[in-house]
Amino acid sequence: MESFSYTEVPDIRAAVAAGQRGGRYIAGGTTLVDLMRETVERPGTLVDIARLPLTGISPAPDGGLRIGALVRMADAAADPRVRSAFPVVSEALELSASAQLRNMATIGGNIMQRTRCPYFRDVTARCNKREPGSGCAALDGYNRGHAILGGSEACVATHPSDVAVAFAALEAVVRLQGPSGERTLPFAGFHLRPGSTPDREQALRPGELITAVEIPALPPPARSGYLKVRDRQSYEFALTSAAVALQIQGGVIRAAKVAAGGVGTVPWKLPAVEQHLLGRRPSDALWAEAAQRAADGARPLRHNGFKVELLKRTVERQLRVVGGTR
């Protein structure tokens, strides 16, 4: 770990000012500190925002929920309002990490976390995320855990967050505070695909601070859930995952929200699956048909072709679990 300066800020205005000067925000620190130890991240200044008043969970104007950026993952997962209205969020959080990490890590930090690509974390390897223009060792290296959707010639690293997949499915909004004031950003536009600039991962402006994630209300009687497929049941990142929310009324699917994780360079929304479900009657055949569209546009690499079929099966299984057959 290299030397750095540290400052604790008393309010959001001071945090934004420090961020504008190049400071890196830190709260739980469960990702950033690890990367600093490995010299992958080398911030000159850490800005401690842990004491800012961003720890609440409250109703959103449309009847949904607003989750403060500094709410701990464990607290969000256990909150009765989250568990009742958005089981997909609480399940994604509980499957995200060990209990110790969930007690420290924050919602804002979770959606900001960086990839678990081993080449990114190996400072001797080529990585365009870490050192733009150096190349991508995963393209011709061992790439079993890498993305089949959203990759480019510059990067094929997956986004690691589970709850971000749930937020993407639910079409959440990220609330930001920056030098120019407040703004909101649709979750679908928050994470950036690598393209030719994989080192730029979020659509944040200099100095901007995440203040909350806002989840819109689901139309009743909606059901939701999260499925994570991994190599082992204990703390592990997803090979594939599926976040599903369905409103079934009068025996017909009136609303469908589906996203996938472990397969994309960003949390991957599945509009083709959603569209295939709308206006249809639930059945085993429908779940299978819709899931076939989950891997549309996939570009598997040498070692991860299995993810194409695994993604389809993961989505089909979770559609059946959430929607049942009627």
Automatic annotation (TrEMBL):
InterPro entries: CO_DH_flav_C, CO_DH_flav_C_dom_sf, Diverse_Substr_Oxidored, FAD-bd_PCMH, FAD-bd_PCMH-like_sf, FAD-bd_PCMH_sub1, FAD-bd_PCMH_sub2, Mopterin_DH_FAD-bd. Signal peptide: none annotated. Residues 1-220 form the FAD-binding PCMH-type domain. The keyword Oxidoreductase applies. This is Xanthine dehydrogenase family protein subunit M. One of its GO terms (molecular function) is oxidoreductase activity. The keyword Hydrolase does not apply. PROSITE patterns: FAD_PCMH. It comes from the Bacteria.
